[in-house]
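Whiteboard transcription, Tuesday session. T.W. wrote the C-alpha cells on the left side:
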C-alpha cells in the first residue's frame, strides 16, 4: 500500500508516495537521490547508513520512512554550509581519516550525533564517572561511542584524532 508522506531532508520538504514498508535509507537513496548514506549490511550493524534524525544519530536502514514524516532529517549532504565543509568533514580530510570513503558519510554523521550526546552529558560504557557534569573524550571514549560504525579499510587510527580535534 502506498502512502503520501513529506520528508524534511537537509532543510527541504520532499513529498513522496511510498510503500509503507520502505526504509528511510531506501527513500533517501532511491527516491530522493541522497547517495551519502550507504547500504552496507542492511541490518543496522555497520553504520554506513547513519544519518541524523531530529539531531540524533540513527541507522536509516532500520527506520521506516512513514514513521518519520516531518522529522528533521540530515544526511552528509546537508552538513556543509554552502561551499564550506562542516568542521568534521574538514578534520576527516586533514587527518586522512578515510581510505575508500564508503563508510565516511556514516562515520561523520555518527560523530556529529555522538558529540551531541557528549554535550548532553550522556555516559558510555567506558565513562569513568557516570555522574560527571561534563564528559571528557579520551581516545577510548571516542572508540566506544563510535563502535557501531565499521571501516573495512581500518582508518580508525585517523578517525579518532579527527573527532578529537573537533571535540576540543
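and on the right, the sequence the group agreed on:
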Amino acid at each position: 500500500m502506498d502512502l503520501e508522506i513529506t520528508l524534511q531532508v537537509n532543510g527541504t520538504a520532499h513529498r513522496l508516495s511510498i510503500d509503507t514498508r520502505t526504509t528511510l535509507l531506501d527513500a533517501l537513496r532511491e527516491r530522493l537521490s541522497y547517495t551519502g548514506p550507504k547500504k552496507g549490511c542492511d541490518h543496522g550493524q555497520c553504520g554506513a547508513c547513519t544519518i541524523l534524525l531530529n539531531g540524533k544519530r540513527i541507522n536509516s536502514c532500520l527506520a521506516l520512512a512513514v514513521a518519520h514524516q516531518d522529522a528533521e532529517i540530515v544526511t552528509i549532504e546537508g552538513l556543509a554550509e554552502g561551499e564550506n565543509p562542516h568542521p568534521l568533514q574538514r578534520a576527516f580530510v586533514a587527518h586522512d581519516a578515510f581510505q575508500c570513503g564508503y563508510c565516511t558519510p556514516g562515520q561523520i554523521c555518527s560523530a556529529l550525533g555522538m558529540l551531541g550526546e557528549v554535550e548532553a552529558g550522556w555516559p558510555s560504557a567506558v565513562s569513568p564517572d557516570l555522574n560527571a557534569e561534563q564528559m571528557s573524550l579520551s581516545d577510548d571514549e571516542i572508540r566506544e561511542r563510535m563502535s557501531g560504525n565499521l571501516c573495512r579499510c581500518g582508518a580508525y587510527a585517523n578517525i579518532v584524532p579527527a573527532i578529537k580535534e573537533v571535540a576540543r
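Someone added at the bottom: The mean pLDDT is 94.
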